[in-house]
Amino acid sequence: MISRKKIFYPVSDPLHHYLRLYHQESKLPVSYDDLKYYAESIPLLDKFGKDTLWETVIYPQSEITRVHDNLKIVYAKLKAAGDLKALKHLYIERIDYCTFGNSHPYRIKIVNKYNDVYDYFYIKTADASRIYGLELEQLLSPNPVHYLVDGGTLVEEHIAGIPGDQFLKLIPRRPEYNLKRVAKEFVKFNERCFLRLLGDMRAYNFVFIITPDFDDYKFFIRTIDFDQQFYEGSKNIYLPQFFKENYPFVELVQKHLNREVVQQYQQEERAVLARRIREERYRLKDLRDVLVKDQVSTPEKIQQLGHELALHYDDAIFEKCTSMGEIIDRSLKRVLITTHTKEFRVG
């Protein structure tokens, strides 16, 4: 079971140093706490009139211009290396506050006044677990996510795609979708999450990217939630296949893929991940040096996860791990071992 309320872990000084070293930290003109001082809020409804559980917040008239100008600066730092001239034609249309979940983010809608094309970005409380998850996504994913940290504030770009739960509703209306390819991608996504120990990947925490090919559609799954990066003690939390919300995807796998094909896709994913580990080995070493000394879970959860992974892999080294940093370090090293590549030290 997932903890009802995940502990928020502050960003340590060594992690701040790492973020500055790799240009993920920047001085921002607005913080998460600054956005709390709105005058009122109204429920945000979707196009069908259903409550989205987000609230649109409204700031005092005397503060609106300042807040909006500062948010445009934040967006420029996130997307355009701080170049405000390139973004002078943008304006803030709406600021929404999320009333559920762990991070209670603010979502900012920013619009191009020339063509009405819009984008979103998020401002959240900086949680060390989430930052480690974002950093591993940056290093190990083919689609890195851009983010910035300033003190206790975290800024993230929006990851576009169709949420997994909405994609399931779409399937019956799209007979042209090759469900074997959907099953293949879920197997690979399941493997990616387990190897990097990213938990709580229920259908609404990841999105589908759909790309038309010359004779078919390709599917890729991206995570949009990083709060449960190596925090829980149960290994099944890191396997999307075990969440009831994902059972329809599991059924697709069982219907369209046999054991040998599943093993093939898992091995392909391990091989891709091994290449990324080799390419980013120096930055991974720096991250590992910070992480092994950082507290991002409880001793009980660390002990439980180490024990369960030791049994799963028949690898006693997991049992000896005393931090989540040591556990993820061993997990990534095993990727190299199982893909028959020369093992290297990331710490």
From TrEMBL:
It comes from the Bacteria. This is Uncharacterized protein. It comes from Lacibacter luteus.
